[in-house]
Every structure is written in structure tokens, then in C-alpha cells.
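note to self — DONT lose this again. spent like an hour looking for the file last time. sequence + predicted structure for the chain T wanted, 297 res
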Amino acid sequence: MTNVDKLAIVGAGKWGKYLVRNFAEVLGERNLTVCDSDTKRLNEVKRNHLEVETTQNEKKVLSDERIKALVIATPVSTHFDLTKRALEHDKHVLVERPLAEKIRDAAQLVKLARSKDRTLMVDHLLEYHSAVETLKRKMDAGELGEIFYLHGQRLDLEDIETDEDILWSLGSQEVSLILYLIGKVPNQVTTHGGSYLRKEVGKEDTLFLNLEFEGGVKAHSHLSWLDPNKTRRMTVVGSRKMATFDDMESRNKLWVYDKGAEKSGGGGFQVRYGDVHIPNISLEEPMKKMCNTSWNQ
């Protein structure tokens, strides 16, 4: 979204307020407009960012020729319609994950963006995390050896979404992380979930996700809004080394273990224990990196 005159963020709620803060730092408050139907949210924006322009009128944002790009941070059910209208008004668009609720709608938006020659980007935040970038480099360089499997956990009991299935919310971020690290599209995907808190609306709040890739690599993730511990962890097991990315750690978010199991002379296996390495990781906020990247594309 390069060479744009002004940026608008539609939605100043859970994620929107963080996007406002980061884009205000990247672009300057005068180059930012925030749109939300909730006056309390807009008042909060004005308290924290005096020079940011605010409005409740999304039609005004779409028709404003100074605004060349939109960031959409509204409920998932509104993503398709808002993104479609933004593209039809020749805006570049950054959308909070997921892009749409249905595959056919997402495909339609991609086709429309191409026909309009507009940038359409989805915010998969973990791909901008310094610890994840470091882990990816180590995997690609072969430091972990042949990759056997990945095991992820995204769990908590604090942030139960009322209008989203957990696969669309936490799962979309988990899948983007797995695909980024492995660098391939899976051959097979299976899920098994349950609706324990929201049976009446049929929304799953706990889910087990399995992906299988060419060459035998497997990835398994446990996603839940019904767990006693908040967990954001991904473990990668390779033939030479293993690594754990733990986003709940305040500083040491990536641990690389020089350990594994090797065949012994008698046909059995011998466990090898080596050093544990904790890389020095930049603490730059992933969202700030994402905002900079999207603006300079």
C-alpha cells in the first residue's frame, strides 16, 4: 500500500485499537482516519490520539478520495461485504484474519483485487514475529534436520468469541503459522471439535486440528477457549534438533534443543542430550512490523 495519501481503519475494538496505535506511530496521526459505530470507542481513540480523525460514517470513508487504503478490523461476518465495497471504491485493503467466512467469498475478493490492481492483504501476525522468523530460518537452513512433526497449542479461558468458530479465530492464525514454517500446502486436513459453551449457536469452542504434508511431515494443534491455562506454544521436532516457540514467555520466546533419538548399534535407539540454545530475539512488536510492511508494499 505504498504512495497512499491517507489510511482509514474501520473498527476500533479488540484488534482495531492496537492497529490504530501502531499505524499512528508508523504514519503519523494526521494521516489516519478511524471509523466505528460505537461512540465510546471513538472517544477512546481521540483521548489517546488527539490528531486522528474519527467518524461513524463508513460511506464517507469509502467515498473520500484522500483515503487510498482501508484496514478492516470488524467482526468476521462483515469482512466480505466491507472488503468488497472497499475494493469497488479502488481502495487497497488490509483485513484482519480470516479474510471471509466462506471460500467462495474469499476467492471472489482475490479476483476483484486483481481486476482492480489493488493490494489485498490478510493480517497473519505471527509471520512477523521475530522468534518465528528465526525459527523459520533455522528450519530452512537444515539446523533441525529432517522435520518430523509440529505440535501447537493455542488455549485460554479469557477471550471467548461470540460470533466466531474457534477454527476461524485461533485456528486461522495457527494454520498460517504452520504453513509459514513448513512452506508447503497440506495434502490432508482433518478437524475434530466440540461446542460446549455455545451449543445453541453451533459454534465450536474446542478443536483438534491435523494437517499432513508431502514427505510425511505432520502438524497437530489443540485450540480451545475452555482451558485453565493460557498457552501460545509451537514445538517443532526434527531429526537433529527440536525447538519450541512460546509466545507467553516475556523474553526467551524461542528455545532450540540439541537433543533427539538416534539408532544404536544393537538395532535400538539411544537418546542424545545436548545443549539448549536461546537465540537473542528482537522484541520489536510484530504488529508494528506488519504495519510497516503493509504500508511499504
